[in-house]
Sequence to fold (218 residues):
Amino acid sequence: MLSASDACLRYVDEEHYCPHCKSRLSCCQAPPVHVGDGLGWGSEVLFICLNDECSLFVNGWQHVEEQYGHSASFRYMKLPDGEAQAMMVAGKDAFKGCVIDPETIKAQNKRYTKEKEALSQLDTCVAEKNLEPVIFLLTDEAAGVEGRKRACELLLEMNDITCVDPLRNHKFVNTTIEQNVEMAIRQILKANFKKECSHCAEIIKAQAKVCMHCGKEI
Fold:
């Protein structure tokens, strides 16, 4: 089954045109609920004419006022399967905030692919001494929480002191993950008889009285 970003990426470069004004239809993310029947649209995307000068949109205001007695108009809309219709909209800004940016979708898709790859590597990363997927998941704030928690547990098993710098240089948004990482770093340093200099943050021997990097007394 395609993810939402996969589905959007599949259609975002397609070209469709409005029969009323000949403008290219914008590829928009479909709302989760169809205003007509309360059900979904059956598609992740809708192709919609967002041209405010389109004759369907311009003339629709008077038609809706006369027929239904309220303020609204129509936009030409086409589904990926080819079905098309005049869709009622409440104002000129409707759906303009849902236009899909191809580059954003491609970037999201690339990140999601890397997350799945990193998750698949967690089962073997300890045996292979491969720290890369663990660091990727812990420093990717968009990654799933459960995967990040598991990565933190594996961090302790790997006991690799080289994890300290990339994790210290990351700004964590999720406070739970941040706390888990902090505890893991402390345990890894302790297991390797190391500590961080309170002045320059470089890693030094646990029994050191003077930092070998900044020369200051600990």
User: Anything to note?
Assistant: The beta strands are 26-29, 45-48, 73-78, 84-89, 194-196, 203-205. The CA atoms of residues 119 and 147 lie 7 Å apart.
